Amino acid sequence: MTASIQTNAVDRIDFATDQPVLGNLNVRWIHGSISAKHNSEPDIQVHAYNEHTYILRQNMAVHYEAPFMFLLFGNDRAILLDTGATRSPEFFPLRQTVDELIEQWLAKYPRESYSLVVAHTHLHRDHFEGDPQFFDRPNTQMVGRTLAETIEFYGFQDWASEVVPFDLGGRVLQVMGTPGHEDAEVSIYDPYTQIFFTGDLLYPGRLYIRDWDAFRNSIDRMIAFTDIHPVTHLLGCHVEMSIYPRLDYLIRTNYQPHERPLQMTVAQLHSVKAAIAQVDNKPGIHIFDDYIIYNGVPDRYFSYENMDPNAAPGDLRPD
């Protein structure tokens, strides 16, 4: 990292605003190609939502999951939410990309010292495979990959029943435990942008439910939260639905030319509550306009907690 100069109080950014600092979501995400071998798009797409908020997407030709990751800057530190589906920096240069973004930000907003937190929306391998790229990075704190470590890091006293603050330096995120898809899943609200980051619990795609009661309760808590907190967008970590209602792309596809936008609305969140009532915990694949609920099928989607960490990509579950 490049050296930075000393700052003073005048240099601190005021992230406490009455109105959200809006950003740009007028973006066409990289979405793979018919021939992954001949794909010419970048390994990682970087999109500046605003000058302190970045959205990254992994190239679908590198890994079919094509997860989204988020880099948020505060006065004292930045947080990277998720590290993608590929470990190798040769094919997925996540640390290099993040370091370059931090260097660019520090060139404009110099700090005497600045750190990075590497965190996860939840603990499935398409969201933490890039972790080893950051293990030897200076001034970096890694959030552990267990429920206990997640609880300890954020300081939860009553997991999944409370919202806890996490301060990046004036930019105070609100972190909520939202299990159901995965036991340690968190959803994170950013008052600065009023974006609600929802991991794999809610996104325009296949919602794989591991624990029905936990999923239902998490959706209820999220709705209650949005009832008293204004939300500009809900951003999950994948896009799997097409622009056509009820129609998703095939699992493990490497090409999604007509996928719908990443962002979802509070109205769509409310629709999940109605879908939950309609499904009523019945196992199966339940198709709705904006998402598809996979409840209890098939078990292999939830079977890799004890998988060999060096397993081939084809052995990873598609979520």
List keywords for this structure.
single chain, 319 residues, alpha/beta, 6-stranded mixed β-sheet, 4 helices, 14 strands, 22% strand, globular, disordered N terminus, disordered C terminus
Describe the structure.
The chain contains four helices and 14 strands. Helices cover 17% and strands 22% of the residues. Helix 3 runs antiparallel to helix 4 (266-279). The strands form three sheets. It has a six-stranded mixed beta sheet with strand order 1-2-3-4-5-6, covered by helices on one side. The chain has a five-stranded mixed beta sheet with strand order 7-8-9-10-12, with no helix packed on it. The chain has a three-stranded mixed beta sheet with strand order 11-14-13, with no helix packed on it. The protein has 319 residues and is of the alpha/beta class.
As a whole number of angstroms, the C-alpha radius of gyration is 19 Å
Q: If you average the pLDDT, what whole number results?
A: 91
* Main sheet makeup: 6 strands, mixed
Helix count from the secondary structure assignment: 4
Structural class, by secondary structure, is: alpha/beta
Beta-strand residue fraction:
15-25%
Q: Considering DSSP H and I runs of 4 or more, what fraction of the residues is helical?
A: 10-25%
Widest beta sheet: strand line-up: 1-2-3-4-5-6
Reading the helices and strands in chain order gives: EEEEHEEHEEEEEHEHEE
What would you call the shape?
globular
Low-confidence runs of at least 5 consecutive residues: 1-10, 301-319
For the termini, the CA-CA separation is 34 Å
Count of beta strands: 14
Oligomer: single chain
